[in-house]
Design brief:
The chain has 17 helices and 24 strands. The protein has 608 residues and is α+β, with helices and mostly antiparallel strands. Strands 6-9-10-24-23-22-19-12 form an 8-stranded mixed sheet, sandwiched between helices. It has a 5-stranded mixed β-barrel with strand order 1-2-3-5-4. A 5-stranded antiparallel sheet has the order 13-14-17-15-16. The longest helix is centred in the first third of the chain and has 23 residues, at 140-162. The radius of gyration is 31 Å and the shape is globular. It binds one RNA strand of 77 nucleotides through strand 1, strand 2, strand 3 and helix 1.
RNA sequence: GGAGGCGUAGCUCAAUUGGUUAGAGCGCUGCCCUGUCACGGCAGAGGUUGCGGGUUCGAGCCCCGUCGCUUCCGCCA
């Protein structure tokens, strides 16, 4: 250490150990807690590295001035490290075997009364924690999350380099893209009436780097989308591990990502990680078996289709739906026939809450069947259910009958709810899977027109041949998602790098060449000058850290997050700007009609 | 944009379901305490029950409006 750095400390709080006994040291940090015995005073002093106990004897000259300090005051202590007596060792503290006997002290930064406690979790409301984020970040949990985040990111960089990837930066001020989420716009001063957009993702740039011949790209990329928040979605901005590779097939991308994910999740967690290769589940199969395209494989329950059994059933609630083109889906739960009536009533209520007309069920007890619907079913039908669902005594099966998409969705929610209520979710593991074979096109439910179902840049499976010869709705894309514990970490795709196939795909959706040239001119033009086959993926860094930190909310792994209304309560963003700034940008603000007029101060008008 | 939930001390919550002076823990202020580590003990300050209106003999509680926070839906190529 240089002499300059010793002005404030010769060692860090959490790194003092038994080897420092009898040494004279100097430490600086925050007063974490005070235990004042009238005579002797104990202070826990905290810095980024941890806590150390400081002992202050009443004989010390600075003893009197102690009274003015509050918790979280920043102080510097000089003193000697001594071993604690056997009875006073604190095994909960990494520095619990020693303590610092203070000989001198200096106040470096005073603190006002705190809006919430640092040392104890006092369940402060989130808006306060966000307003005083610098205090919240002093707390152990958040601090650990942020350290974890930094370590994960630096490990990603090491591993990606090792896998042959090269790190790039791409522009933050770019152009507004017609597809996707709402853009954040930045007005141009030099070009009146024109706007930059912050990138929703560096999608086109990374593809252009492939065309430029860089072969393997990665970036810890900030992405900006003006969309509303969810628990796992921070509004405004978030980070992706953006990846793109040239001369690869889908399997090459999977292999690289599996190696990275396995490495990261094993390094930063003790939980079990899915063995490679991760299971690959087609979109169709996922929708059938799990009722969603991001299945939580920790949940052992699966959904089966039993429509056939009820095609000609006397039970109209089911056969009627099937005859109209709908489906009957079933979830079997083994060994829960002893659940009380209330459990089944609650499940029916739940299904109705998520939009189902009802929830049929059959309880297979050893001697008899208990069920509100069994009286409508024939012996043959019940026998078929037994075979199809491989029923044993004690099992229960639940039924949902709706149009296909709705049935899948409701059955999926019922599957999740059953596993949650019955505590069937496997613990201490990360279950990864790939969802593959997404459809290239789908019908717009409102206009009934054919539209891209994911993104227009994916290569259709079968290439031009499929586009020309197949029913568009039957064409699959080289489009995939990676899912962990029911959280979608990322979408990715093998890109469509052939201009003629791109034009054809857009044509199927009703767009001419001009539209493609206008909307994606930069990229389509580049593809005309020798583009390599390429593909990639972009896992959400925040979501990965969230899983590793075992946090249910993404804001807990971001140092300075927006609140749900996309505001930074600490920095007061967004905020109004001066007239001069607006003038320079050629901007005139027109407030929405529904303005919140500031309430006039209460003034009692004299009665007439 | 839509639906639900919440709003009481600096913070977290309570108030026997409409009934006397709105309570507790943490924090804060003062005093006591020399081995604590969630130190302990005594005393004290702190409230226009988000705001506005209404019903009622009486409103923290019921009704209407409004503002704020939050979860979900829409949205997220």
């Amino acid at each position: 250490m240089t002499e300059i750095s010793q002005r404030y400390r010769t060692i860090h709080c959490g790194r003092i150990g038994e080897s420092d006994i009898d040494r004279k040291i100097k430490v600086s940090g925050w007063i974490h807690s005070v235990r004042d015995h009238g005579g002797i005073i104990f202070i826990d002093l905290r810095d980024f590295s941890g806590l150390v106990q400081v002992v202050i004897d009443p004989k010390m000259s600075f003893y009197q001035s102690l009274e003015n300090w509050r918790l979280e005051t920043v102080v510097c202590f000089n003193g000697t490290i001594i071993a604690r007596t056997k009875e006073t060792v604190n095994s909960k503290l990494s520095t619990g075997a020693i303590e610092l006997v203070a000989e001198d002290m200096e106040v470096l930064g005073e603190s006002e009364v705190l809006p919430f406690q640092i040392a104890k979790d006092d369940c402060a409301p989130e808006h306060l924690r966000l307003k005083y984020r610098f205090l919240d970040l002093r707390r152990e949990k958040l601090r650990n999350n942020i350290f974890l985040r930094g370590n994960v990111i630096s490990e990603i960089r090491d591993k990606m380099r090792q896998l042959g990837f090269f790190e790039f930066q791409t522009p933050i001020l770019t152009s507004s893209s017609p597809e996707g989420a709402r853009d954040y716009l930045v007005p141009s001063r030099i070009h009146p009436g024109k706007f930059y957009a912050l990138p929703q993702a560096p999608q086109q740039f990374k593809q252009l780097l492939m065309v430029a011949g860089f072969d393997r790209y990665f970036q810890i990329a900030p992405c900006f989308r003006d969309e509303d928040a969810r628990a796992d979605r921070s509004p405004g901005e978030f980070y992706q591990l953006d990846v793109e590779m040239s001369f690869v097939t889908q399997d090459d991308v999977f292999q690289a990502m599996e190696e990275l994910m396995t490495h990261l999740f094993k390094k930063f967690s003790t939980k079990k990680v899915t063995a490679t290769p991760f299971p690959r589940i087609s979109y169709r199969e996922a929708m059938l078996k799990y009722g969603c395209d991001k299945p939580d494989l920790r949940n052992p329950l699966t959904i089966i289709d039993v429509s056939k059994i009820f095609e000609n059933s006397a039970f109209n609630a089911f056969s009627g739906v099937v005859k109209k083109g709908g489906v009957v889906r079933a979830v079997k739960v083994p060994g829960i026939s002893a659940q009380p009536r209330k459990f089944f009533d609650d499940m029916v209520k739940f299904a109705q809450e998520v939009g189902s007309k009802g929830l049929g069920y059959i309880v297979f007890e050893t001697e008899q069947l208990k069920s509100p619907i069994v009286k409508f079913l024939s012996e043959t039908e019940i026998a078929s259910i037994r075979t199809e669902a491989q029923i044993s005594d004690g099992d229960v099966i639940f039924f949902v009958a709706e149009k296909e998409q709705k049935a899948a969705e409701i059955a999926g929610k019922v599957r999740t709810e059953l596993a949650t209520r019955l505590n069937l979710i496997e613990k201490d593991c990360f279950k990864f899977c790939w969802i593959v074979d997404f459809p290239m096109f789908e019908l717009d439910p409102e206009t009934n027109a054919i539209a891209f179902s994911h993104n227009p840049f994916s290569m259709p499976q079968g290439g031009m041949d499929s586009l020309v010869n197949k029913n568009p709705l039957d064409i699959l894309a080289y489009q995939y998602d990676i899912v962990c514990n029911g959280i979608e970490l990322s979408s990715g795709a093998i890109r469509n790098h052939r201009p003629e196939i791109m034009y054809k795909a857009f044509e199927i959706c009703g767009y001419g060449k001009e539209t493609v040239n206008n909307k994606f001119g930069g990229m389509i033009n580049a593809f005309k000058f020798g583009a390599p086959p390429h593909g990639g993926i972009a896992p959400g860094v925040d979501r990965m850290v969230m899983l590793l930190a075992d946090e249910p909310n993404i804001r807990e792994v971001i140092a300075f997050p927006f609140n749900q209304q996309a505001q930074d309560l600490m920095m007061n963003a967004p905020s109004e700007v001066t007239e001069k700034q607006l003038r320079e940008l050629h901007i005139k603000v027109e407030m929405p009609k529904k303005i919140h007029v500031q309430e006039p101060l209460k003034s009692k008008e004299p009665e007439q």
